[in-house]
Amino acid sequence: MSDQILGVIPARFASTRFPGKPLALIGTKPMIQWTYHHASLSKSFHRLVVATDDKRIHDVVLAFGGESVFTSPDHPTGTDRIIEVAEKYPNYGIIVNIQGDEPGMEANLIDGVVGLKTKHRNWEMTTAAVPFTSAEDPKDPNKVKVVFDNNGRANYFSRSPIPASFKADAKYFRHLGIYAYERDFLMHYNQLPASDWETVESLEQLRALQNGSTIGVYLSEKANLGVDSPADLEVVIAEFKKKGLI
Fold first, then answer.
1. Continuous segment of H or E residues that includes residue 148
2. Consecutive H or E run containing 47
3. Closest residue by Cα to residue 94 from 187, 171, 203
4. From the DSSP assignment, how many helices (H) and strands (E) are in the chain?
5. Is 212 left (phi over 0), alpha (psi -120 to 50) or beta?
6. What is the rounded CA–CA span in Å between residue 18 and residue 230?
7. Pairing label, strands 5-11, 47-52
8. How far is CA 61 from the centre of its chain?
9. What DSSP letter does each residue of 167-195 carry, written as one string?
10. Which end of the chain has fewer CB atoms within 10 angstroms, the N or the C?
11. How many CA atoms lie within 13 A of 43 on its CB side?
12. Bond preceding residue 76 cis, omega within 30 of 0
């Protein structure tokens, strides 16, 4: 069981809501460069690569000094893409999936997720969550909610508000799309039985949960916004300006 840790940033050019998203500019740099830069500030990785099926993204990553690997354009899920990358790098015992549309991803959040995984090698996966802010609506299906037990293990993920409550002081936690996988588990992930939870919610991680695997949840106090749409990009650009990054 290797202690080496591989960070993987999947980046697709084809996106229904935002084509070419990884190459969208934030200041003078493309989004994928910001994501790579902030991920590289993590102390956890022994290697960090971008996984893409597009030559334009591949060339941009190489141009700014990053490492990029080509993957098949035919993968049905993001996890299948991560599995292909893991096959190319057999000496890494923990594989971390960082979303390519998280240009402000905090290094300490990555380190928290990875630290939880290294502490619990018997847990198949770890991920992250953050408390909802007062400006966020738990009923928004694009903001995935998670509930977890007192030991930090996920009970369920949903696009609906969970736990279901209309009390003013109800606590909701937003799931963040970062995963650290135990290698052996990841390599057999796509052989797990189909999950009706996954189908109903359209959330891939529910396949692991319904089949009895453990997903640890690292709770962060805050997290920067990911980019799902051009409107999100404008918010991120304003935030980067405010922080003096651009």
1. strand 145-148
2. strand 47-52
3. 187
4. 8, 11
5. left
6. 7
7. parallel
8. 19
9. -TT---EEEEEEEEEEHHHHHTGGGSPP-
10. N
11. 4
12. no
Half-sphere exposure of 89 (CA within 13 A, CB side): 28
pLDDT digits (tens, 9 = 90+) for 113-153: 999 999 999 999 999 999 998 888 899 898 899 999 999 99
Task: Give the residue among 8, 201, 198, 171 at the shortest CA–CA distance from 87.
Answer: 8
Beta pairing partners, 148: 154
pLDDT mean across residues, the chain: 93
Cα torsion 151, 152, 157, 159 to 10°: value is: 120
Distances in whole angstroms, Cα of residue 149 to Cα of each of 177, 179, 203: 19, 18, 20
CA–CA gap between residue 202 and residue 205 (Å, rounded): 9
- Site of tokens 């334009």: 56
Q: Is the pTM of this model over 0.90?
A: yes
**Spatial distance between the Cα atoms of 179 and 97, rounded to a whole number of angstroms:** 5
Can you give the pLDDT at residue 122?
96
